[in-house]
Amino acid sequence: MFLRRVTLHQLKIFLSLARHLNMTRAAEELHMTPAALSIQIKQLSGTVGAPLHEQIGKRLFLTEAGRLVYAGALDVFDRLERLSGDLAADQGLERGNLKLSIITTAQYFAPHFLGAFCKRHSGIEATLEIANRDQLIERLKHNLDDLYIMGQAPEQLSVIAQPFMENPLVLIAPADHPLASQHDIAPERLADESFIMREPGSGTRLAAERFFEKHSVQPKIRMTLGSNEAVKQAVAGGLGVAVLSGHTLTLDAASGAFAVLDVRGFPLRRQWYVIYPSTKQLSPVARAFLHYITEEGASRNQSPGR
């Protein structure tokens, strides 16, 4: 068995397959075709000298050899991460890697923080993943990244959640909506409105649902959409009103397409958090970015869209 022929690329692919136990989803995560992924897995299996997975019905399972390779691959990448951290510490912050995963709503500000940090430390190689809440929690479970930015820490995982900036949720409507010119609107009046909502499980939707429950409002949900931009387009088209992070409106202020409704209890006061597993040893680069974004977030602690 010539394991020296095994490549890190093959191990990375196999780790993704082992997590998803689905060729198509693993290929999507790695931006590959299922056929290309299958070829790499077959080559790795050939080098190992044993099948790494098996198909039973429609489900895929790891073989005993597959479980051993999975554990070994985790050890390999864990050691490489620690080596990267050691080298970064040895070289100050002139070298190193930073893997950051963010919730979709954070794409309106997080790249600016990351870009400014990388300008300060030009030798750092950064990777940015943008995903919905469920996908981010899966990445967090498998410790795929250094840090995660979310609007709400997952309760089912043991994590450290560092707040760094306010995340006000506002209620938006088309600019010509009848409530746009009114003030101190009672929450009960929202019962007559049609709502455009984010997908179930999203942090924004969870916060909105808590507000409705607190005020005994049963919202009429006209449409559920999976992205902030889609929600904004639906609102602009007159299909209803929506609860969104004020940060999503940063580039829309000049368009005049939206009105932020003055509803009693809004904006909903929430926080953005930098999150990582409680047992994780952060690399020097990750620690430096955490310190940077905490300071920068505090200095920009304002409420857009109010």
Write the layout of secondary structure elements.
Layout: H1 8-20, H2 23-30, H3 34-48, E1 53-56, E2 59-62, H4 64-90, E3 96-103, H5 110-120, E4 124-131, H6 133-141, E5 147-150, E6 159-166, E7 169-174, E8 194-198, H7 203-214, E9 220-225, H8 228-236, E10 242-245, E11 258-260, E12 271-277, H9 284-299
Parallel strand pairs: 3-4, 3-5, 8-9
Antiparallel strand pairs: 1-2, 5-12, 6-12, 7-10, 7-11
Protein name: LysR family transcriptional regulator
InterPro entries: LysR_HTH_N, LysR_subst-bd, WH-like_DNA-bd_sf, WH_DNA-bd_sf
Keywords: DNA-binding, Transcription, Transcription regulation
Please provide a written account of the structure.
There is one protein chain. This protein is an alpha/beta fold. It folds into three domains: 3-72, Winged helix-like DNA-binding domain superfamily/Winged helix DNA-binding domain (Arc Repressor Mutant, subunit A, Orthogonal Bundle), CATH 1.10.10; 92-166 and 271-299, Periplasmic binding protein-like II (D-Maltodextrin-Binding Protein, domain 2), CATH 3.40.190; 169-260, Periplasmic binding protein-like II (D-Maltodextrin-Binding Protein, domain 2, 3-Layer(aba) Sandwich). The chain is built from nine helices and twelve strands. The strands form four sheets. It has a five-stranded mixed sheet with strand order 4-3-5-12-6. α7 links the parallel β8 (194-198) and β9 (220-225).
Key phrases:
306 residues, three-stranded antiparallel beta sheet, alpha/beta, D-Maltodextrin-Binding Protein, domain 2, transcription, 3 domains, Arc Repressor Mutant, subunit A, disordered C terminus, single chain, globular
